[in-house]
Design goal:
The protein has seven helices and no strands. It is mainly alpha-helical. It starts with a helix and ends in a 6-residue tail after the last helix.
């Protein structure tokens, strides 16, 4: 119900088409990703006989990996004024993230989870700078606060959920 109202509202607002596409695509991607969030700890403890500590360590590995790679990748992307590298970065990071989600079904041990979490962090470090760069470039003059708040309305509550649950995705 809530998502239909938001999608209709976005459709009717006169904002840059790139912003609409970015917001709607993120809404779809992160809505599906959040379906996994509540069962992540159960998945780890049941499927690979991990512990709650393993879930926390996995989240920490994600955050460390993302933190190590995100700034250098952002600096690298900024070396060119073209938007193509931003787009390629956002797409390749998102595709690598999707592959990691599929790879979750094949892991059998905690050490495989840790490696996968490091790759998840690397994928996020590739995707986020490009996505933010494109979004920032296409924000309409005079509507900056509105367009960022529109994005935050869709994802702000998830950011709180992610930090509280220890889940591995934060923008």
């Amino acid at each position: 119900m809530y998502s239909r109202t938001i999608l209709r509202a976005i459709k009717n607002y006169q904002i840059n088409i790139v912003i609409k596409i970015l917001v709607l695509s993120d809404f779809l991607i992160w809505s599906s990703a959040q379906l996994l969030s509540p069962i992540f700890a159960i998945f780890i403890t049941d499927k690979i006989n991990g512990s709650i500590e393993a879930v926390g360590i996995a989240s920490g590995i994600y955050l460390i990996s993302k933190s190590i790679f995100e700034v250098p990748i952002g600096v690298f992307i900024d070396k060119t004024k073209s938007e193509k590298d931003d787009l390629y970065s956002a797409i390749s990071g998102t595709l690598l993230t999707a592959l990691c989600f599929f790879a979750l079904t094949f892991i059998n041990s905690v050490w495989q989870l840790y490696i996968l979490q490091a790759i998840f962090g690397f994928a996020a470090a590739i995707a986020f700078p490009g996505w933010y760069s494109i979004f920032t470039r296409h924000v309409d003059k005079g509507k900056e606060a509105f367009e960022w708040s529109l994005y935050d309305c869709l994802f702000g509550y998830w950011n709180g959920w992610r930090s509280c649950s220890g889940r591995f995705y934060s923008r």
